[in-house]
Amino acid sequence: MRLSTKGRYAVMAMVDLAMHSTGKPVALAAIAERQEISLSYLEQLFARLKRNALVRSVRGPGGGYMLARGADGTRISDIILAVDEPIRATRCDPQSPHGCTKDRMRCATHDLWSELSNQIHLFLSAVSLADVVERRVLGVSGRLHGHGELPVDLMPAASAAE
């Protein structure tokens, strides 16, 4: 399971917009250059973001895009859903009454992957653009992957006693 390029690039561009918008519109060409994303691709993404009321456009000289809700009011999940299908860890179609196996039953791990999808959505719904811009996202999961020390309560028993 991966987040699609559309979702990743849309989040990158919206974070850039939040970082560089000082009450004035930001040109897509500037975002494209800073983020190394094709301008034509960004235009497609921002058309979807605008359609979903996450950004607003300003025409004319000095025009560009602005956040429609502000960085605190824009959730990462809203950005991804605006440009992409929801992130799913199952191979089953959630709209179908049938499962993902040959006999049309749910696979043995369906509930596991379905709950993982729910947890990802809950996490992304709890994170705002402001959280990303102000670097308030990295939590325990970052420490578990080598970005810091483990909290004492997560250390193996032998290590915690030393």
Distance between the termini: 39 Å
User: Ranges with pLDDT <50 over ≥5 residues?
Assistant: 150-156
Question: What kind of sheet is the major sheet?
Answer: 2 strands, antiparallel
The coarse overall form would be: elongated
Proportion of residues in helical segments: 40-55%
Q: Report the top-level CATH class of the domain at 1-85.
A: Mainly Alpha
Order of helices and strands: HHHEEHHHHH
Q: What is the CATH topology classification name of the domain at 1-85?
A: Arc Repressor Mutant, subunit A
Rounded to the nearest angstrom, the radius of gyration is 20 Å
Would you summarize the structure shown here?
The chain is mainly α. Helices cover 48% and strands 5% of the residues. The protein has a domain at 1-85: Arc Repressor Mutant, subunit A (Orthogonal Bundle).
Topology:
Blueprint: H1 5-20, H2 28-35, H3 39-51, E1 55-58, E2 64-67, H4 76-83, H5 110-126, H6 129-133, H7 140-144, H8 157-161
Provide structural commentary.
- The chain is mainly alpha-helical.
- The protein has a domain at 1-85: Orthogonal Bundle (Arc Repressor Mutant, subunit A).
- The protein has eight helices and two strands, in the order αααββααααα.
- It has helices at 5-20, 28-35, 39-51, 76-83, 110-126, 129-133, 140-144, 157-161; strands at 55-58, 64-67.
- It has a two-stranded antiparallel sheet with strand order 1-2.
- Strand 1 (55-58) and strand 2 form a beta hairpin.
- Helix 1 (5-20) crosses helix 2, helix 1 crosses helix 3 and helix 1 crosses helix 4 (76-83).
- The longest helix has 17 residues, at 110-126.
- The chain is elongated, with a radius of gyration of 20 Å.
- It starts with a helix and ends with a helix.
- The model is unreliable at 150-156 (pLDDT under 50).
